[in-house]
Amino acid sequence: MTIEQIPANTLADLAALLNRREVPDEIMATGPELIQYGQHLKASQLSDEAHLGSDLGGAGLLTLIEQANTAFFDHFHLFGDAAPIDTKLTRKVVTLYHLKPIDDQHFLFRLKQLDY
After folding, report:
1. Where are the alpha helices (DSSP H) in 1-116?
2. Which top-rank group of organisms is this from (predicted)?
3. What is the DSSP letter of 84?
4. pLDDT band with cut points at 50, 70 and 90 for residue 112
5. Cα R_g (the chain), whole angstroms
6. Cβ proximity of 112 and 23 under 8 Å
7. Which residues lie closer than 8 Å to 82 by C-beta, 6 or more apart?
8. Pairing of strands 106-111, 97-103
9. The dihedral sign for the CA sequence 61, 66, 71, 77
10. Which domain holds residue 105?
């Protein structure tokens, strides 16, 4: 099995990659806009282990609170100078990909299903 890794520099590149019939296995974000976007999403997410524990203990309520929190902060642009971002794109990224900062100039979006 080979893992397909595709570079992306802008949010438009990311949106185009995710609108394809088959999404890439990994997306390497290299542009400052995408790195800021990845950091924003990573800061607003819980780890998979935290999600599992909270979903089991709270019957999924924490997931709803997390989504509402992210939508609220995105709507009022409370994450610094970030431009408004399409919520469908954000939902798709969060659902499909694990987000992993590599260094200051690279951010990796890796399909969750590759880790199972």
Report:
1. 11-18, 32-43, 48-58, 61-75, 87-96
2. Bacteria
3. P
4. confident
5. 14
6. no
7. 36, 37, 40
8. antiparallel
9. positive
10. 80-115
Q: 5: which strand partners? A: 26
Which amino acid is residue 14, in one-letter code?
L
Place of tokens 């992306």: 8
Measure the CA dihedral 108/17/85/94, to 10°. Answer: -50
Overall number of domains in the chain: 1
Q: What is the pLDDT of residues 37-90, one digit of tens each?
A: 998 888 876 666 666 676 677 666 766 776 777 677 666 655 555 555 677 888
In a domain, 104, yes or no: yes
